[in-house]
Design goal:
The complex is a heterotrimer of chains A (about 325), B (about 290) and C (about 325). Chain A has an eight-stranded mixed sheet, sandwiched between helices. Chain A is globular, with a radius of gyration of 21 Å. Chain A is built from eleven helices and twelve strands. The longest helix of chain A has 18 residues, at about 185-205. Chain A has helices at about 50-55, 80-85, 110-120, 125-135, 145, 155-165, 185-205, 215-220, 240-245, 250-255, 295-300, and strands at about 5-15, 20-30, 35-40, 65-70, 75, 90-95, 175-180, 205-210, 225-230, 230-235, 305-310, 310-315. In chain A, helix 7 links the parallel strand 7 and strand 8 (about 205-210). With about 325 residues, chain A is an alpha/beta fold. Chain B has one domain: MetI-like fold. Chain C folds into two domains: about 5-240, 3-Layer(aba) Sandwich (Rossmann fold); about 245-320, no CATH class. In chain C, the strands form two sheets. An eight-stranded mixed sheet of chain C has the order 6-7-8-3-9-10-12-11, with helices on both faces. In chain C, strands 2-1-4-5 form a four-stranded antiparallel sheet. In chain C, helix 3 (about 110-120) packs parallel to helix 5 and helix 5 (about 155-165) packs parallel to helix 6 (about 185-200). Classes of the chains: A alpha/beta (about 325), B mainly alpha (about 290), C alpha/beta (about 325).
Chain lengths: ~325, ~290, ~325
Amino acid sequence: MVEPILSVEELDVTFPTFEGLAHVLSKVTFQIYPKEVFALVGETGCGKTVTALSIIRLLPKNSYVRGRIIFNGRNILELKESDMVGVRGKNMSMILQDPSSSLNPMFKIGEQLCDAIKSNDPDVKEPKTYALELLSKVGFKDADRVFNSYPNELSGGMQQRVAISISLTGRPKLLIADEPTTALDVLTQAQVVQLLRQVRDAYGTSVLLITHNLGLVAALCDRVGIMYFGQVVETGSTYDLFYNTKHPYTKGLLQSLPYNKLKDQTLPTIPGDLPSPLSPPPGCRFYPRCPRSKEVCSKNVPEISSISKDHYVACFNPLSD
Amino acid sequence: MSRLTLSKETKITLELIRRDKLAMLSLLIITFFVVVSITAPFIAPYPSQGEGLPVPEKRFLPPSFENPFGTDYLGRDVLSRVIFGARISLFVGIFVVCVAIMIGVPLGLIAGYFGGKVDEILMRITDVFLSFPSLLFAIALVATLGPGLFNAMISLSITWWPWYARLARAQAVTIKEQPYVLASQVIGVKGLTIVFRHLLPNALTPIIVQGTMDMSSAILAEAGLSFIGLGAQAPSPEWGLMVSTGRIYLLNYWWFPVFPGLAIFLVAIAFNLFGDSLRDILDPKTRKAGGQM
Amino acid sequence: MPLLEIKNLSKYYYKRRGLFGRRELIKAVDNVSFTIEKGMTLGLVGETGCGKTTLAKCLLRLIKPTSGTILFKGKDLSKIESGELDSYHRAVQIVFQNPFTSLNPRMTIKDIISEPIITHKSFTKAELETELVRLLKVVGLNETHLNRYPHELSGGQNQRVAIARAIALNPELVILDEPTSALDVSVQATILNLLNELQKQFNLSYIFISHDLGVVRFISDYIIVMYSGRFVEMGPSEDILGKPSHPYTKMLLLALPLPDPKKKIGLIQQQMQTLEDWVGGCVFLQKCPYRGERCVKGEPEMLEVGEKHFVACYYTIKGDRT
């Protein structure tokens, strides 16, 4: 029985806003195992970015957080900020959607990479050599030239690869990638995807991929968690989620994709709109829009139940085979 | 075009102002002076003296119950004089800033939007104005027109509008690339209509901030002009003039120049602080941070 | 007669490299030709910088093309009188990618949708109100949205407003520039359905610009693939996706992630070595894994490889198509 590298348990996050309390996350639960690429998928407002920020502990100061996040055997929600600094960048690192915002335009790539090496992996004797190695590992055939370039001399895809190399300097166990390819072209996106898989294989790093792109999930990930409106509704292997879908929301999402459909077909859609996080419905949060809802769904929150080994769903009326 | 519905953004702005202590304090001071200037004839203890009536037997009296700020070299109650002076200063500030905005902003927006020859001509003109130190320019203008409050205000407006033109032009250049402007062009809306319907409302934010802070500068500039004799003339209760006339009496009869000086100081600081807070509140980047409770 | 006919359209402009560098000629759109019929959806596929937005701006007359002709219902646009320009504006409209920046944040929904109407027609207040409500219903919104501001609505709702604005004047052609790229998956489906419905209802023609081949395939009848200012392949949707002939099209299809775990992303190894100092030749030369001697000699012509299916590639024309 393999121990998960990250276990998020009953995570609740609330933000105070002008108009009241926003219950952004509600009992979020999922696990990530070593050497796997795990996708956290959902649409706008589902809370996937908030989840990522909770894990790396970069939420705004006045948020209310409850629950446990076990990483490397410790509940990191209980760590002091000074201890957390030792985790961030080393055992756990993160790359963002806009790579140019994580790179300082005033300094050359080489300098920034060496700085990261010195602070995250101080045992390395020759930072420059190691930096060049890292750059070629992330796919740069001309590592020297990149080492001496400024960020704005590189394309978006190249900047993202540099960001990935910086995030690997501490030999992290977990790399959180928040929509890393949304701003990139299709061809560049494919390169970054392949790179993340290589990272998993070569370094043994697990990747938490935050995305709304289901195609990317199918192509890259081992396991998936589907989020809706602050809750994780279904988790399982990629295959299970696409071919053995259990939750009505997941099904609705997959059905609304236009791939392999013809124009005269009306795409099935999920009716209604996302309610406000200030007043989430009691009971199952998907209840108002669910085609399979029963009376119990409006009153109680469904518990997570296991469909098969490693396939979980939170639903009172899941789809059958 | 439509009923005035307060958007959520406006409501958030008002709420953020309410929460910012410094903003509320400066707003309070500003409101206080506005009220004072409106009700001057009613709240001044000696309104006629406020306007200039000399009272020779009461010259140079120190602050007392009857004259809380003392009397000046002509025996006039300094408190009443300061109260009436508020009218002038506030009027000056509003007038100069408003005129400068009304001339500069449309010109700047048009230059920024249409570009080309129009832009070049307008910008050359503004460059000419901007290359002179504005106060010096104002002095030269007033000297030509002849001293007096009104002439001082006109000269200040004339030297001030180019700053707004520059500001508005920079805004226009950015905003005109926005998709909603392109959409209107595709619809076939005429250029000038686009400038006033789309560019103007979206360019307002930095202009409002600048305008608020310029109120303070305008009041100071006007006081400065009056101080050197080119602005308001006796017997006007203008603060700068009072400081100027009272200067020589500073050691013996300090209340005479000090109270008007304090008034200038308070009003200028209040506008400045308010403009500063407003800038943070309205700037989208710092706004989010302020929005966390 | 086709609704819109574009012949050899080009848009070039000069860019200066650095402060004292040489002036470089950028061929944003280079010698493109195509036609659009009434009621048809033309899909335009390409990545950032391929020139699709410049092409759209030329068609909308926001910028003037360097050379070539645009015929609208047989009339040459460059020779159009200013009075007729008005009717062209009513006939061709646009929907942008970002629903938040394509609507003026300081205007209410009511003012935004009224704008085209008050610019071209004179309605009384009551007539305007009725028309606004009608338009909102057509796109799936209702009266309560009239007095709101864009930031108070969701992305999908804002995009509906943008569509309502675009169809307010009964256009014949609507250009959609990545209209669903900024939207969630489930919202995208509702907008695609709406676009199809409106097309049937009002006999609209669409130019649907996107980088997502999967979405383009669903909504388009005919697809054009664009690279670096030129059209490299064009044909009926089924042909482009089923029998892609140009190496670039093939690369795009392989790299497109499909929501199906059984299909993995493939990556054709791109050409890494840059050929220095070449002028002319195929526009895809630097990246093409199949490049050969012929490719440097000149731009390949568009040749027919199937019914209404055209490709510009020497390699394909040679006959060995994989």
